[in-house]
Every structure is written in C-alpha cells, then in structure tokens.
Design brief:
alpha/beta, Rossmann fold, 2 domains, four-stranded antiparallel beta sheet, 8 helices, 27% strand, binds adenosine-5'-triphosphate, binds magnesium ion
C-alpha cells in the first residue's frame, strides 16, 4: 500500500551535501501499524514526510496505493493529501481556538464527504467534557487526544505519527498507545509511527523498520511478550532484544 523503491534524499547543509536517506526500499501493508525507529538524525521524520509529499526524494519512488507521489500535479496532490492525517510530538494545536474548533479545522480547509461527526470523535478520544476548553487548559495527554481527533475527523486512510508520545509522561504515554490501538481496531487505517521509544513500538506495532544514518538496517516483526530493557548494548541490539525477545 505504501512502497519506497530505492529512495534516497540528499539535503544541502553547511558542511556540504548530507545523505539523509540512503537507498531505502520498504513495503508497508494496508491497515498495518508500522513503526520507524532509530537514533536522532537517522532519517525517521524525513521518511515519514515523503508519504504526504512534505519532502520529495532526490532519487527513487514513493508509491501510495500504486500512485507515484512525485507525479501528482497540484490539484491531484490536494486530493491525495486529503486521505492522510498527521499527528505531532508538540501537538500543533491553535491556542486561540477551542478543542472543538481545533478538531474541526481540517474540515474548514477542505470539503470531506465522509467526515466523522464531532460528537462521535470527541467521545472516541474521551474529551466530551472538554469541547469548549482551550489548549492551555489541557494536560499533555489531552492535547494529544485533540491532535488525534483532528487527525481522524477527516477519516483518513493513512495516519502519520511523528513522536506522538515523546512529550508525555509514562502513564499518559500508555493512554495514547491504547487510544492508537483502538484507532487501528476501529477504522480502516494504516498507521505509521516514528518513535525512539521501544516500548511504544512493542505495544503498538506489527512491524518496525530500524534506521541508522539514513540506512534501513532491519525490518522486524514485533513480538508482544515483554522483555527487560538493558542499557549496555547498542540501540540496534537493544531493538532486536526487546522486540524479538532474543
Ligand atoms: N530540511 C533539511 N535541511 C537540511 N538537513 C536536513 C533537513 N531535514 C533533515 N535534515 C537532516 O537529515 C537528517 C535526518 O533528519 P530527520 O529529521 O529525518 O531525522 P530523525 O530521525 O527524525 O531525527 P530526530 O529523532 O532527531 O527527530 C539529519 O541529519 C537532519 O539534520
Ligand atoms: Mg524526527
């Protein structure tokens, strides 16, 4: 459903050209919850941003449902992007709008035939009592629930999540992981989640790609049985150990 074919990305930087994504090929199935992990600067966000054309590859092809994203004209791109929702580490809510207004924002920008009802989505994310509150009156977890509701109200086929739990404490993180699990069970949706938190991948994902310095090092099937974390091994070893129970 989402396919990367020999994708590379070179950024211009002060120190010269930077190979941020190095010849990555990867296939993500429809309705998967797919994780992307790796250390800071590994290329995780860049890989995610190819999917909704926020970045364009320097080489290679990104296909979504058989469409090469790079071949779309502006009008086609607008339609294409309507099927993709995104949620962020810092929530990206508008401070001068209420919870309800923030969630409804995508529907003001474009027309959607199939959008969810505001009452439905408020109930789904557990924010019925907060519809008239402003972001400054919410906890981090509640803000992310608003972000998720805003991402879902358009009923997207793909939800891109960039570090959705990284600004949250442990308990709140669990709640957001549970909510995203429920999203996956409830909607016909493919979820991609970038994170550096292995326990989030462990509890949420079917498969996970490990990136290191722009390279795809491994794609693992996630095993659900818990394993202790160890700190004296490399990130990649740790990932294998925690996710595969090796
Ligand atoms: N617009 C840009 N211009 C120049 N360099 C960039 C740009 N965007 C990203 N990079 C560089 O590309 C590399 C990969 O960046 P990316 O944001 O994808 O990493 P990441 O894995 O998401 O890291 P983090 O965990 O810190 O968010 C980094 O070295 C980054 O500095
Ligand atoms: Mg990033």
């Amino acid at each position: 459903m989402i396919e990367f074919k020999n994708v590379s990305k070179i950024f211009a930087s002060k120190a010269g050209p930077l190979l941020a994504i190095d010849n990555i090929s990867l296939f993500i199935e429809k309705n998967e919850i797919f994780g992307i992990i790796g250390e800071s600067g590994a290329g995780k966000s860049t890989l995610l941003r190819f999917i909704n054309a926020l970045e364009t590859p320097s080489e290679g092809i990104v296909e979504v449902n058989g469409t090469n994203v790079a071949t779309l004209n502006n009008r086609e791109l607008r339609l294409f992007k309507k099927q993709i929702g995104m949620i962020f580490q810092q929530f990206n809510l508008l401070g001068n709008k209420t919870v309800e207004e923030n969630i409804l924002l995508p529907l003001e920008l474009h027309h959607y035939d199939d959008a969810l009802d505001i009452d439905q989505i408020l109930k789904f994310v557990g924010l019925e009592g907060k519809r008239n509150s402003y972001p400054s009156e919410l906890s981090g977890g509640q803000k992310q629930r608003v972000g998720i509701a805003r991402g879902l109200i358009t009923r997207p086929k793909i939800l891109l999540c960039d570090e959705p739990t990284s600004a949250l404490d442990e308990i709140t993180k669990r709640e957001i992981v549970d909510l995203l699990t429920r999203v996956s069970e409830t909607f016909e949706i493919t979820i991609l989640i970038v994170t550096h938190e292995l326990d989030v991948v462990k509890d949420l994902c079917n498969r996970v790609a490990i990136l290191d310095e722009g390279k795809l090092v491994d794609v693992l099937e996630v095993s659900r049985e818990m394993n202790a974390f160890q700190s004296d091994v490399s990130y990649q070893e740790l990932a294998r150990e925690v996710l595969l129970n090796e």
